Amino acid sequence: MNLEDNNISFQLYKYLCDIVGSEEVVRTRREIFAAKDIGDHITAATFISSGSKAEGIDLKGSDYDLMILCDYYRVYECLNDGQYDLDKIMLSMDTDDTKPGFTKLMLGDNLFHNLVKQILTWFETVGEKTYLSSKRVREKDLKDDIVIHGPCQSTPGGGFDFATCLRCKEWISPAQQWIHRSRTTWPDYTLVTSSVKYGVLFVPVGCKNSPNEDLQWRISFSVTEKWLIHSFSHTQLLCYALMKIILKDIIKLRHGDLICSYFIKTIMFWLSEEISPIEWKPDSMTSCFLKYFKRLVYCVEYQTCLHYFIPEINLFEDRFTDNQHKELLETLRDIYRSPWIAVFHTTTLKQFLPGSVNLRRMELTASELSCFTYISLFMHDAAKFYFYNPFVYTDLTKLVCAMI
To answer: Which residue has the higher pLDDT, 183 or 336?
Structure first.
């Protein structure tokens, strides 16, 4: 790359800092959500912020996702005689007749067993086994103005999603290869170890069109995914944000939801394993992004996007019809042939002018931290969900205190 290319890369980096946020702004956003999650913990449940805003990215249209972790439930990959939680409702994974990445959650035989079967209506018995129904949990106490979106209950327009989730404190077998597989220095040993100790989550949505779809839960690595993004260099984060901008301003306008943000996150994770962290630097911004976009084109061309933690899952399996695949590939190739023409004509970036970009240092202001607005607007709805949802055991006093 010549000096002119380096200069353009650096200017693009600085401009994206003004749009996405400087390192300081991004770090502060994350700290706000981390503090909120700690402060919102109540006896029966833990709040986990996720989505773009919790990742530190606050673009127009960025969503805020809230995961409601029910602490009275404990999931095991396999129950044995030595595992017995007197104060938990124990569930175990049952992957018979499920595709990779999904599981049924079978009720264990503990002191809560009879109580659960008599009182909680979201369990379903099939033969001699009793399962927690993802459909019943997902649709519990659904308000008139709330819609179902995947595993979430969502506000109209999708600005705020919240989903009930359960936790397994083990790193499950299907994802074991992630721990030891060959990679560069990212992610580092500490991050991998922390992820394994945390375990995985389960969200209430089954594999579409499966015979037992309503009983299945999707395995979620959202906490580890958030930690992985937090470990990005700022150049990595800006490349990821730039891809989100192109997805929103160009690809979605032409092709709807054929490509979703989870796919581009997955591709970024794989690429980050291959590229040395020292290559992600401001004066290499353009070349790094082109590698990223080229990988997206490749994945779409061969209709292969492997799940980052469970590679036997192809996220693009049966994703496109022949016409959809052809048209999407044409769009991506057009962008790749003239990437900066496309980028600089997006709604978000159309004001970019190489050579005259304003390189001011972003101030840390309330307007740059609009996540405050999301917290204040939506926590009231989350509180109502908790109080009226007997899936979580709590009382109003504790709940109100947690919200203050």
So the answer is: 336
Pairing of β 64-70 and β 129-132: unpaired
Residue 88's nearest CA partner among 107, 102, 105 is 107
Beta carbons within 10 angstroms of residue 192's beta carbon: 18
Calpha distance 390→262 (Å, rounded): 31
Name the one residue in this structure whose structure tokens are 């209430």. Answer: 204
Residue 397 buriedness (CB in 10 A; 0-12 / 13-18 / 19+): exposed
Rounded Cα distance, 9 and 3, in Å:
10
For the range 208-212, what are the long-range contacts, defined as Cβ-Cβ under 8 Å and sequence gap of 24 or more? 210/97, 210/98, 210/99, 210/102, 211/97, 212/97, 212/98, 212/104, 212/126
- Using CA atoms, how far residue 210 sits from 55, 82, 123, 213, 252, in Å, is 32, 33, 18, 5, 27
Query: CA angle, 369 as apex, 222 and 357 as ends, to 5°?
Result: 105
Using one digit for the tens of pLDDT, what is the confidence trace for 317-335?
Answer: 999 999 999 999 999 999 9
Model confidence at 287: pLDDT above 80: yes
Separation of alpha carbons 239 and 382, rounded Å = 33
Could you tell me the two tokens for 255?
Answer: 């092709």
pLDDT digits (tens, 9 = 90+) for 336-395: 999 888 888 888 877 655 554 444 444 444 334 444 444 444 444 444 444 444 444 333
Quote the tokens at residue 82.
């030595």
pLDDT category, 99, cuts 50, 70, 90? very high
This prediction has a pTM of 0.86
Handedness of CA 111, 112, 118, 122 (dihedral sign): negative
Q: List helix spans (H) across 170-233.
A: 176-180, 189-198, 222-230
**Distance (Å, rounded) from C-alpha 194 to C-alpha 177?**
16
Q: Report pLDDT digits (tens) over 213-237.
A: 999 999 999 999 999 999 999 999 9
Is residue 236 a contact partner of residue 313, using CB atoms and an 8 Å limit? Answer: no
